[in-house]
Design brief:
The protein is about 40% helix and about 20% strand. With about 325 residues, it is of the alpha/beta class. The chain has two domains: about 100 residues, K Homology domain, type 1 (Ribosomal Protein S8, Chain: A, domain 1, 2-Layer Sandwich), CATH 3.30.1370; about 220 residues, P-loop containing nucleotide triphosphate hydrolases (Rossmann fold, 3-Layer(aba) Sandwich). A six-stranded parallel sheet has the order 9-8-10-11-7-12, with helices on both faces. A four-stranded antiparallel sheet has the order 1-2-4-3. A two-stranded antiparallel ribbon has the order 5-6. Helix 2 runs parallel beside helix 4 and helix 9 packs across helix 10. It is globular.
Length: about 325
């Protein structure tokens, strides 16, 4: 890859050696270029192997194009999600000059390759690889639950663990569902649906069905964890902000040998009665000074990787809560 820069910073021309990758880099009808133009307020003109860049954030646009090109060389597909992620990752470097492509950690599963889309996600995946107890705390849409589910599947397929255990507290989000019909599975499934969704995205339905039937994947409400020792397992507790202090202590002490545990939640979305302290808030304080094999990762609105409007909604709520200034 060769980069040439004119004397005036307002215009840069970059060249790509492999012309076969250009159609995928530009996207159908140049949609990827148009996306970069829209988000960075630049003008991009592609011709053959060359792209001319002018406008406001030309160095950032150059880094993004180089980054996407490197991803294509590694065999990854490129679409709007990858464009947005590259812009986000390169923006956070705060240095738009002559940087190589962002080193993005990946999680490989049978169904797909999952990549970090923000720098916090990058730290999170690295923590999942290195720590035996990891906390992922932040707003909706940051991947705090999805990434450990994908990582658990990867470790299961590598036979580094023999079981995946996914759990949530059975607490309604501000509404009473009443008595649910059916057997125990039917009653708890509505609370655990987000975990099923994450599983189905990284593992075939046939495998999920088989693993659940033989107990390799277990999805259960938090109350079912009492009295157990969970060894050689990957254990994930989702929506942990809705645990009590006693429930959280109980869950944390289930950790057995050759296991790893991930606790996820959003301390701004607590659905417990006002007189009950969140077990997640307490656990973060208690484990803060335990450095050996314990890691706490905090996400914010900049890490939201869903629809761009979700990030704006999260930011708006945070701003409103700060202006009200009422402690939880």
């Amino acid at each position: 890859m060769k980069n040439s820069q004119n004397n005036i910073d307002e215009n840069i021309v970059i060249s790509f050696n492999n012309q076969k990758l250009i159609p995928d880099l530009f996207g159908q009808f140049d949609k990827n270029l148009r996306r970069i133009e829209y988000l960075l307020n630049v003008n991009l003109h592609g011709r053959g192997k060359n792209v001319s860049i002018s406008g406001e954030k030309i160095h950032l646009a150059k880094n993004v194009l180089n980054d996407l090109y490197e991803q294509l060389k590694k065999g990854f597909d490129i679409g709007f999600e990858e464009v947005d992620a590259s812009i986000r990752m390169n923006s956070e470097k705060n240095n738009y000059t002559e940087k190589t492509a962002v080193d993005i950690p990946i999680i490989r599963t049978e169904k797909k390759i999952v990549r970090a889309r923000t720098h916090t996600q990058k730290k999170y995946i690295n923590a999942l690889n290195a720590s035996e107890l990891t906390f992922g705390v932040g707003p909706a849409g940051t991947g705090k639950t999805y990434l450990p589910v994908a990582h658990a599947v990867e470790m299961l397929e590598k036979e580094e663990v023999s079981k995946i255990i996914l759990s949530r507290p059975a607490v309604e989000a501000g509404e009473k569902l009443g008595f649910l019909p059916g057997d125990l599975k039917d009653k708890v499934d509505p609370y655990l649906r987000p975990l099923y969704d994450a599983l189905e995205d990284v593992l075939s339905f046939k495998k999920i069905e088989k693993y659940m039937e033989i107990g390799v994947i277990e999805i259960a409400p938090l109350a079912f964890m009492r009295g157990r020792t969970l060894s050689n397992a990957y254990i994930i507790l989702d929506e942990a902000q809705n645990t009590s202090k006693m429930q959280m202590k109980m869950f944390l002490t289930r950790l057995g040998f050759n296991s790893r545990m991930v606790i996820t939640g959003d301390i701004t979305q607590i659905d417990l009665p006002n007189n009950i302290t969140s077990g997640l808030s307490e656990a973060l304080k208690v484990t803060h000074f335990i450095k050996d094999k314990v890691c706490q990762i905090y996400f914010d609105d900049q890490d939201v990787v869903r629809h761009p409007l979700v990030q704006k909604i999260v930011k708006a709520y945070e701003k409103a809560e700060k202006s009200i200034n009422v402690p939880r």
